[in-house]
Amino acid sequence: xxxxxxxxxxxxxxxxxxxxxxxxxxxxxxxxxxxxxxxxxxxxxxxxxxxxxxxxxxxxxxxxxxxxxxxxxxxxxxxxxxxxxxxxxxxxxxxxxxxxxxxxxxxxxxxxxxxxxxxxxxxxxxxxxxxxxxxxxxxxxxxxxxxxxxxxxxxxxxxxxxxxxxxxxxxxxxxxxxxxxx
Length: 182
Known about the structure:
Blueprint: E1 2-4, H1 6-9, H2 19-29, E2 38-40, H3 46-57, E3 63-67, H4 70-74, H5 79-95, E4 101-105, H6 115-131, E5 135-137, H7 160-180
Parallel strand pairs: 1-2, 1-3, 3-4, 4-5
Helix pairs in contact: 2-7, 3-5, 5-6
């Protein structure tokens, strides 16, 4: 299950072009019997993700991939609140029975918010992943952020080609997570 924002939902694209659908193709090609659920919601903050989590866990996902915080950063919301929300998401997921394997997707804040904010924001993801024994994708938009040809006209949401790069960024970590715990 991919809990996320418009980046996960594939805003502006056909759902089949969003990176979770591309991960499904990779799972199928690898002969791994998982069904991807894209639970991405445009505009969602980490607080919104936290509020939806209990309902989503009713599906008993084997793996929970958490992509949150992008909208927190765009809005300049508190880094402490992001940390608390991500900590709660991961803690609740770990207490769920059976607990899903966890993957945290890192995000970065825009540089116009200042170096102190952006550094604190960036550090939340590896710190929370480590404290919850979750795998970490260091930065979802690696190789896509700031590359005009890989982003839609808004400069924020990846094109279909950009989503393919996102899928590769996630697959590198997800594949290891799945193979390490079969």
